[in-house]
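User: Could you write out the 3D structure of this protein bound to T3D? I've included everything you need below.
Assistant: Certainly. Input first, then the structure.
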Amino acid sequence: MTGAATPTEPTIRLEVADAIATITLDRPAALNALTVPMKQELLVALQRGERDSAVRAIVLTGAGRAFCAGQDLHERLEPDAAPLGEELRERYNPIARAMRGMAKPIVGAINGVAAGAGASLAFACDIRVAAEGATFALAFGRVGLVPDTGATWLLPRLVGASRAAEIALLGSVVSAEDALAIGLVTAVVPADALGAAAREMAVKLAAGAPIALALTKQALNAAWERDFEGALELEAELQDRAGRSADHAEGIAAFMAKRPPRFTGE
Ligand code: T3D
């Protein structure tokens, strides 16, 4: 049964261990296609990860053989399905905003096909690592729709305008290997090594100075809207803030003592 999940059936798993929150899209029988309750649960999971002071990095992945096949197309046929613009404004856009706006880094562990809004979710992660055999497809055109959930903004910035146009207009399917070649993912690993590879990346991020990482993400996000002078000024402002953190002092002390730093996020 691949239709919309019943509201009581959880479709998102959130597990927190060792400063890492792992969020799993969990409707494997429907390739983790997104239903209304699932989108609501995903937003709540992201907000929990953001708010939990024990969490320093987030991993987003899919259960089963897919990362996410995008919008649940069965649900679109339901008589009470919201108009598309409303669905985006009410449910998809808050997820994209939460992912890009949150202070904590998100590692996408792309375990299989990422299609439609599923590809958009992958693009909204800060870093992506893919399993061999994973694919990315802006499958929107095939159902007569426009790429959404931030894809038209994020993809050109990740891979350049020309590649983005090819992927968006032709609907080209990007293999994990091609994704690596065009810089869409950081690494491609055997499927059975994906969890460990994503976790290793998240552990490195979780060991970093949280304030500096948050401000770095802010600066990278803002860079797209600023000219060079604006970026220099923002760096100066953010560096002032980072420089006042206890973690900056700890970083220097650790360097002097030739030991690894112990960042507390203060
Ligand atoms: O609210 C709004 O609509 C606005 C937002 C729109 C954003 C979007 O995401 S639009 C794009 C929606 N996604 C797609 O068009 C992709 C549809 N799926 C596929 O093209 C293929 O399933 C895949 C290429 C992803 C994988 O193909 P394959 O051959 O490996 O698997 P399959 O046999 O097609 O799918 C397996 C099952 O998952 C199947 O169910 P069944 O027959 O075994 O009961 C299939 O129906 C189900 N499934 C896959 N994708 C979706 C889905 N069920 C509902 N919605 C899906 N998107």
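Residues 233 and 239 are 10 Å apart (CA to CA).
User: Perfect, thank you.
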